[in-house]
Design a protein that fits this description.
Layout lengths: L2 H12 L5 H12 L6 H15 L4 H14 L5 H8 L3 H13 L3 E4 L2 E4 L1 H10 L24 H11 L16 H13 L7 E5 L5 H6 L7 E6 L3 H13 L4 E4 L16 E4 L5 H14 L6 E7 L4 H13 L2 E12 L9 E9 L17 H4 L4 E5 L5 E4 L8 H7 L9 E4 L6
Parallel strand pairs: 3-4, 3-6, 4-5, 6-7
Antiparallel strand pairs: 1-2, 7-9, 8-9, 10-11, 10-12
Helix pairs in contact: 1-2, 3-4, 3-6, 4-5, 4-7, 5-6, 12-13
Length: about 425
Amino acid sequence: MSRLQQIVDLIVTESTERNAQDEISAIVQVLGDVRLSLEEIIKQINEISKKVKIKEGTNGIKRFLAVLDRYPNKPIRFVSQKSGFPTPISVAIKNELIKIGWCEKTPKGNKLSLRGIEAVKELTKTNFDLTCRECDGIGFIFEENKFAKELEKFKYYVSMRGAPKTVIDQSFASAETSLRRILFMNHNYDLIKNNYALIGDSDLTSLLLSQFLKNDQEIVVFDIDQRLKKIIDIYNKDNSTNIKFVHHDFRNPIPRSYRGIFDVVLTDPPYTKPGVSLFVSRALEILNQSIGGVIYLSFGQKPPQEMIKIQKDLLAMNCLVTHILPRFNKYIGAQILAGESVLYRLEALPPLTPIIKEKYLNKLYTGDFNPKNRIYVCINCKNEIIIGKNEKIKTIEELKEFGCPYCKNNKFKKRYGIRQK
């Protein structure tokens, strides 16, 4: 540790009345060993932008630096959530910042070095957090403790589900997320309608929804995963409910007998632009054609160039966005999404205009667009295992089920970068 760093750590530890950050800046100004010119800073940012190849360019790197500056000593998953980048991209940016001495690892996570702090100070004089501590910036307070009984029952059935099928982009939302979706529906007066459909329900939100609806309000689940039917059947038998399950591949249009009869649709489509367009199109097929309806769409944040295309598709389908709730959905795992996604409330207005009406034959899931192999390291024997669409083991779920091919251990850590020889 340098003498300068020792002095800085002492100030941060002992400063009480005076602002420690101002003290640090004073030392930096006197010693001058970490200062960079604005020209040098911009040059470094340009180089990092070229290396990680993000569509947001240098502004994306600046935002990442600002997040590290605003939230020191946070794990990369947190930084990824705040910066809006997928976890792999965040790791790549962080590694580049470490190489040039702007970022360093800490026992709690990551933080800017003194050089990184000074770089941010050259870029902006204002960078502080205004997030509401009560609602975490969502804008609503969900008193989940009031529904402990409902959550406990829900979690019992969710535990029957097994591992997610990542080849079809399944990521399970937390039980609390399902509850918050329903409470938000209540806030918008959307629990007083007649017919509810779920275009995909790997989260099993339908089970919890039934606890907040009357018996004569219909719930229908459309999904390609037959495992869900078994759980729904058990739930119906145990609770005298009548949730219907329709086995369906959304590449095909919805059966005509279900078209035009629903008031509210919930959907959490594959993490691709075609995924949104296809699932919303299928939702429009089953909503009431004369008065329209409401769609609750859960989807991860994409780069601005992709999000504008998605928004244009929604407008083309006559879907008005009434609410956008960032970081609303929390997922178990889902590393590429940093464990979170946005909840959109859409009002589908007549004439309902799906942009995909026939059988869909093109790429749909994340793996179709990005069929990269991934490397996992066995926690026990440290051997590396490659998984991917064209490998013997295709998903992490399969790897955990079969165990390490070398020692049969079933705990692994994902590794980023080039495979070690």
